[in-house]
Amino acid sequence: MKANPVGWFEIYVQDMPRAVAFYEAMLETKLENLPMSDPEAWPDLEMWTFPMSDCDNPTYGAAGALVKMGGCPSGGNSTLVYFSCEDCAVDAARAAANGGSIFKEKMSIGEHGFIALVFDTEGNMIGLHSMA
């Protein structure tokens, strides 16, 4: 197994504009529309990717996208994605200020730093991790 076994993640959403606005505001970043290579085969599929490195110049971490696809509801899943940040309390506050909610405030996980757990605008729980 490679050092970073997760190669991709998807967060399923129902309201793409709302979800894109939430993640861009919380993470202070820009998401990019990922056009489908065969839109006729996937007429109800829409994807917006988080910033990622290219295959020729990989960096630490896993790439991923918000996904809206018929038959794939958001929320209630058993996958938890953790986003790295400078201070997870700051990102958690931005989550709450942009339509999400805080499930667990910043808490210590010992020598591994700190985490906070929040819900996005689509009902998905996500984790935030920082060393400070």
Automatic annotation (TrEMBL):
Q: Which InterPro entries match?
A: Anthracycline_SecMetBiosynth, Glyas_Bleomycin-R_OHBP_Dase, Glyas_Fos-R_dOase_dom, VOC_core
Coiled-coil residue windows: none
Q: Which residues form the VOC domain?
A: 5-131
Matching PROSITE patterns: VOC
This chain belongs to the protein called VOC domain-containing protein
Q: Which organism is it from?
A: Thiothrix caldifontis
